Description:
- With 255 residues, this protein is α/β, with parallel strands linked by helices.
- β8 (139-143), α5 (154-164) and β9 (165-172) form a beta-alpha-beta unit.
- It is built from 8 helices and 11 strands.
- It folds into 2 domains: 2-68, no CATH class; 71-253, Vaccinia Virus protein VP39 (Rossmann fold, 3-Layer(aba) Sandwich).
- The relative contact order is 0.13.
- The longest helix has 18 residues, at 14-31.
- It is globular.
- The protein has helices at residues 2-11, 14-31, 70-82, 99-106, 154-164, 193-200, 213-220, 235-240; strands at 33-38, 45-46, 50-52, 58-62, 90-95, 111-117, 125-126, 139-143, 165-172, 223-227, 249-253.
- Residues 2-12 have low confidence and may be disordered.
Amino acid sequence: MKHLFKFFLNFFPRPFLIRLSYTISPFLAFFLKGTNYTDPIDGKSFKTFLPYGYGQQRNNVLSPSTLSLERHRLLWLYLKNDTNFFTDNYKVLHFAPEQAFYKRFRNMKNLDYVTTDLNSPLADVKADICNLPFKDNDFDVILCNHVLEHIPDDTKAMQELYRVLKPGGFGIFQIPQDLKREHTFEDNTITDKKERAKIFGQYDHVRIYGRDYFNKLRNVGFKVKEVDYTANISEELINKYCLAKGEIIPVVFKT
């Protein structure tokens, strides 16, 4: 199954995979029902989660029901338990909306929910993150997760995110990050897809972020909290929810 998933991820374009996922996920969820692991997003339990990864595959990480990964389940727990996202009235901008969240957030009565992306079939507004068609100070909350590592000019993208966020608003900008690295690594001379997947973790990533990512956000103007949310969760639940222990949630604020 690992090889099959890897083939699909690397061979088919992401918009096709998004559409396909809505067809196959109910069957996967049915056949993998069990009690070993639980997806906190929908509360369903399974005997195992699925493997995932464009380059090196990670075992037991993809929920069969919501198609969430470790980062999605961690974000859900943070939003649910440590913010007013599910209760207060917010205008939300969500980049490249994930299947795990899209319908749930769309159906929340307290949210004025706008999605955007250049290619995603789930996007309301087709837009370049470096040139957004929104007015200044427009959104209370911005979710931009695992997007910036795809953007050649990520500083310009961050500046646009800062521009459209309201003063007093917050954002969550998760990225794949190697916390052992002090500095972010980029090399545009590596053009082979397999080599890029091997080095950057995915063929369409343009960098590996290091610990300097947080200061890059601060230099744009954001106040940044580096939230190690798994430190607040028991080992039992980390294993039950299949979370990545020590993953940092970058929470940003505009004052």
